[in-house]
């Protein structure tokens, strides 16, 4: 097997794991927001008008966005979202590790990203329309402290 056998990998076969264990209801139609960016601070140098220095300030992350058909109330992810977003801060927010794994044609993990100290910050449902024949979709946004590509 060559390093380039699965290059470039297809983006349609992926799984999401919550706290290191695969859960049956963790199938998503779309995952987005896998990004890390260095925030820059502009610095102008006195007497130098040709350019502005860009100094690294901090590493920032967007939110991880998950989309899927509306799941059962027994789903561990739904329960986590419900406790966090509907709990009115009556108890501490439970942080979890979320893994996103891009898989090959035989189910093998080709690439993987780990999102540490994740928690739900938004849970929404797409609009309903009597003129469309589509699956009802829920969207979940997760904030996290930091991420790392592990494969």
UniProtKB/TrEMBL annotation:
Listed Pfam families: Phage_T4_gp19 (PF06841)
Signal sequence segment: none
One Gene Ontology MF term: structural molecule activity
Segments forming a coiled coil: none
NCBIfam families named in the record: conserved hypothetical phage tail region protein (TIGR02241)
Name of the protein described by the UniProt record: Phage tail protein
Organism listed in the record: Duganella rivi
């Amino acid at each position: 097997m060559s390093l380039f056998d699965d290059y470039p990998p297809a983006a349609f076969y992926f799984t999401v794991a919550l706290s290191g264990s695969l859960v049956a209801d963790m199938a998503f139609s779309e995952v987005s927001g896998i990004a890390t960016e260095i925030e820059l601070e502009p610095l102008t140098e006195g007497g130098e008008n040709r350019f502005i220095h860009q100094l690294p300030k901090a590493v920032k992350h967007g939110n991880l966005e998950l989309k899927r058909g509306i799941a059962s109330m027994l789903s561990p992810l739904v329960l986590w979202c419900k406790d966090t977003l509907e709990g009115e801060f009556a108890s501490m927010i439970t942080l979890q590790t979320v893994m996103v794994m891009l898989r090959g044609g035989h189910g093998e993990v080709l690439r993987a990203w780990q999102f540490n100290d994740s928690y739900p910050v938004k849970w929404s449902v797409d609009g309903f329309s009597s003129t469309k024949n589509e699956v009802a979709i829920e969207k979940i946004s997760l904030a996290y402290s930091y991420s790392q590509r592990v494969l």
